[in-house]
Write a structure and sequence with these properties.
Elements lengths: L3 E5 L9 H7 L6 E6 L2 H11 L4 E2 L9 E3 L11 H6 L6 E5 L5 H15 L1
Parallel strand pairs: 3-4
Antiparallel strand pairs: 1-2, 2-5, 4-5
């Protein structure tokens, strides 16, 4: 079952700013952004179910972090600002840390299942 509507990773050739990312970066980084079907409720269930990702207001650490903008300060953005920033009610951003990759994948998968 498809749980996300859209995944945004600048390293993907399908990303609208892929060419810019290639020009500015040697590597594409460790930030993944996606929109969950089910909006804010699904995003909240996803974030609450994560075991290895810490909820954070900003991304960038050696530990894995998660932010759901609409659950935090994103609610004060106008609809136009949300559109420009590609923020929906179901937007979740992950910053991948130094934990074991298999553990992180397992954690994301179980959180996706909880978000349904």
């Amino acid at each position: 079952m498809r749980r996300s509507v859209r995944v945004r990773i600048p390293g993907l050739p399908t990303h609208p700013q892929h060419a810019l990312a290639r020009a500015q970066m040697r590597e594409f980084g460790t930030i993944v952004s996606f929109d969950l079907k089910g909006g804010l409720e699904a995003a909240a269930h996803f974030v609450e179910a994560l075991r290895l990702f810490a909820l954070a207001a900003s991304l960038g650490s050696t530990e894995s972090l998660v932010v759901a903008p609409q659950m935090m300060r994103g609610r004060d953005l106008t609809p136009d600002q949300q559109r420009i920033s590609a923020i929906t009610d179901g937007t979740v951003r992950l910053s991948i840390g130094l934990e074991d990759p298999d553990d992180l994948v397992e954690d994301v998968n179980q959180a996706l299942a909880a978000a349904q």
